[in-house]
Give the backbone structure.
Amino acid sequence: MPDVAFDFAPAYRAEGWGAGIAWRAYALETEADEDTDWTGIEEPTGMILAYMIGDDRTFVFDPSDLVPIADDDYCTECGQIGCTADGRSDS
C-alpha cells in the first residue's frame, strides 16, 4: 500500500496539461483488493483524483505532476490561470 501524504488545500497546475488551467485535488485514488468484498476497504494506489476548476470530470494524477499555485493566480469561476473574471485581484 503506497503511503501518500498530500495537501488537498491549494489549487494546482498539472504537468502535461499546459499552464493555463487550475485543478482541484480532492481525494486519493483507491482500488479494490481481494478482501474488499467482505471488508469494504479499498487500498490507496498512490495516485490523486482531481478535476479542472470549472469542470466536473475526474482525472487521475501522480502527486509529483501537481504543482501548487497561489489562490489569486486563477479564476474560481472558469479555472483559467491568470483570469480575473471572478472579481478577485492580487492587489
